[in-house]
Write a structure and sequence with these properties.
Elements: E1 12-20, E2 23-30, E3 36-42, E4 49-50, E5 55-56, E6 67-76, E7 81-89, E8 98-105, E9 112-113, E10 141-149, E11 152-160, E12 170-178, E13 181-189, E14 198-205, E15 208-215, E16 220-226, E17 240-242, E18 246-254, E19 257-266, E20 274-276, E21 281-285, E22 291-295, H1 299-302, E23 303-307, E24 315-316, E25 323-328, E26 331-346, E27 351-362, E28 365-370, E29 378-384, E30 389-397, E31 406-415, E32 423-431, E33 434-439, E34 442-448, E35 456-476
Antiparallel strand pairs: 1-2, 2-3, 3-4, 3-5, 6-7, 7-8, 8-9, 10-11, 11-12, 12-13, 14-15, 15-16, 16-17, 18-19, 19-20, 19-21, 21-22, 23-35, 24-26, 25-26, 26-35, 27-32, 27-35, 28-29, 28-35, 29-30, 30-31, 32-33, 33-34
């Protein structure tokens, strides 16, 4: 986990990650001033150490003397340098017009601006909003992402078309890079839905192209697909890649894998919410063609040991006479015909991976609980096996408040394909404040929250019966301390 906390808890801005040798290199903005692009390194993509800052705002009077915004770092195999395309704002324009510039480095540590062939680049008002062509008082032309395809190079840009309803002009703009310079062309994607599509990026998986973008309206990461780079990008019925709170996602190649990193915004305020970078996930094309998130493969390196979970290890907490915990060997059944009951086992230090199979035999309210304290406050994940919905809630007490003396906060919702048998493989991961739930091998919930740190996990049932089988509880090496 990485948060880059200073005086404020929300200083983390948009990110980009690239791998060089055995190290991952993270570049990110620093809020609220946006006066430099920070740089951190990691051996595992999870615990980071700050290093030499990459780039600072320009000297007074230059095009980027006000602020620096989102960047993309990539290796140029022809020029044999690393390139950073980034967004700059100019004080003389009150930062109202965004431009794209470029810096180069041979080692990812020492950067120098090299703006030639028409850089820095700004919109011209023919295709994309420019000065005098917008209705918001400021111009979107930011968040570059370089994509190479069939010998050509393209910059994807968060931009807005010049016509249409003001709140629906957001598009993924496109710039072609050639030996003669940079040419603005028609948008790669214009859905007529959003004010902006932020931090656009593109991944090619198994012959399909997946366009990924973050949307301020719902604070989620969406995606669209096409079977050709310049083709028509379409949406699946459910096109949320990363659920609520996850933002500013960027993809990177890590050998044969395609990883997605993102910022998590606690409080759901893209302007000031508390921010951190959770561990990455892997992108995979599903059998139906959609994108799937797979848990990061390096969790295997964090495992310290495992223990089986027998029926005798579970304790009930509410003394409900209509509830029962029964079973032998690999299978344990938890039930309550009337009212609520919680069954838990202890865990050690808040860093674990709990795996197994859950079968919903009778659907009332049921699911997982973890982080449970001695007042039964913690995290509750409700599993609706009929509709295929997983919802995580923070639920506990707040005794210092006389009237509203409870915490009951819906944190995130994810979906999964319902099974006719009501049987699902699951893995629940807690690593410090990071929480991740996978159902049938696909990540459904991924968030950061630190409200509860109790040491019990298990299941809850209300007029329901569930069966757990093939369980294992793995202790994980706890999160290290990120060093600024």
């Amino acid at each position: 986990m990485y948060s880059s906390r200073g005086f404020r808890e929300w200083e983390m801005g948009d990110i980009d990650v690239i791998r060089r040798g055995k190290e991952y290199h993270l570049f990110h903005l620093v809020l609220p001033n946006h006066d430099y692009i920070a740089h951190a390194v990691s051996e595992d993509g999870m615990t980071w150490v700050r290093t030499r800052n990459a780039l600072f705002t320009g000297e007074p009077g230059t095009w980027d003397d006000d602020m620096l915004w989102t960047m993309h770092v990539t290796r140029n195999p022809v020029r044999k340098v690393y390139e950073m395309f980034f967004t700059g704002l100019h004080r003389a324009e009150n930062g109202h017009i965004q431009r794209i510039g470029r810096a180069v480095s041979r080692d990812l540590l020492h950067w120098k601006e090299e703006n030639d062939q028409g850089l820095p680049l700004a919109p011209q008002g023919l295709i994309y909003e420019s000065a005098g062509k917008g209705d918001r008082g400021w111009i979107s032309f930011r968040d570059p992402f370089l994509f190479r395809h069939e010998g050509s190079e393209w910059l994807l840009i968060c931009a807005r078309v010049v016509q249409g309803i003001g709140s629906r002009r957001g598009c993924v703009g496109l710039v072609r890079r050639s030996v003669d310079g940079y040419v603005l062309v028609e948008p790669l994607f214009f859905p007529r839905m959003y004010d902006d599509i932020e931090c656009p990026c593109l991944a090619e998986l198994a012959g399909w192209f997946y366009l990924i973008g973050s949307v301020r309206e719902d604070v989620e990461v969406h995606y669209w697909w096409s079977n050709s780079f310049r083709g028509e990008y379409q949406s699946f019925r459910h096109n949320v890649l990363l659920p609520r709170g996850n933002y500013a996602a960027r993809v990177m190649k890590d050998g044969a894998r395609t990883l997605v990193f993102n910022v998590f915004i606690d409080g759901l305020d893209v302007e000031s919410g508390v921010r951190s970078i959770p561990p990455p996930k892997e992108l995979r094309k599903s059998v139906h063609g959609g994108l799937e998130l797979v848990s990061y493969h390096r969790w295997e390196e964090k495992k310290l040991g495992t223990r089986p979970l027998a029926r005798e290890a579970f304790t009930s907490h509410l003394a409900n006479p209509k509830a029962a915990c029964e079973g032998t060997g690999e299978s344990i059944a938890f039930s309550s015909t009337n009212g609520y009951e919680i069954f838990t086992v202890p865990e050690d230090d808040g860093a674990y991976l709990w795996t197994g199979q859950i079968r919903v035999r009778r659907q009332g309210q049921c699911g997982f609980v973890f982080g449970l304290d001695d007042q039964l406050g913690g995290y509750f994940i409700t599993l609706d096996a009929v509709r295929g919905v997983a919802q995580i809630r923070a639920w506990g007490s707040r005794p210092e408040r006389v009237f509203r003396n409870y915490i009951y906060e819906d944190l995130q919702l994810g979906t999964f394909p319902p099974s006719t048998e009501g049987r699902y493989a699951f893995s629940l991961l807690r690593w410090g404040t990071y929480i991740e739930l996978s159902i049938d091998g696909v990540v459904r919930l991924t968030l950061v929250d630190g409200q509860f740190n109790g040491r019990n996990l298990g299941v809850f049932v209300e007029s329901a019966e569930v069966e757990l089988a093939h369980q294992a509880l793995f202790a994980l090496a706890p999160p290290g301390t990120d060093r600024a």
